[in-house]
# Entry
Amino acid sequence: MSQPLIAARNAPVRQLKTSPDARPELQVIAPPVRPRLRLPLPVACVVLLTLGLLGLLMTNIAIAGDAYEITDLQVTSGRIADQQQAVAESLARQSSPEQLAARAAELGMVPAPDAVHLTSSGAVGEATPAPTPSATAGTQGRTPAN
# Structure
């Protein structure tokens, strides 16, 4: 241990020599009365509650507006899907073999007689010329293009 601590332990304790008459009389002292306002806490609670409810109301209004927008977009999407289906059906009708043959005949095209297939060993089949189209089929409403 260090020397100052040993010296502090061995030091004599001083006692105050006072007489019982010199002791002051103890009194109860009340704290000073301060007027405290109890109003700020309830006002703060009401303001906080009001702001929370207004925030909730604005959130609900925004959600409802988005719901209406989603409904409108779903209706528009359904309408566009119906249009797409109608166009796909029209395309399927126009690309049927009967329609293609009729439009080809209107243009003056004739069906090929027999097909000739080319292979590495040569041509398979016999080439024959296509028949000449009828004069009335290819010239209805059209001018010849040279």
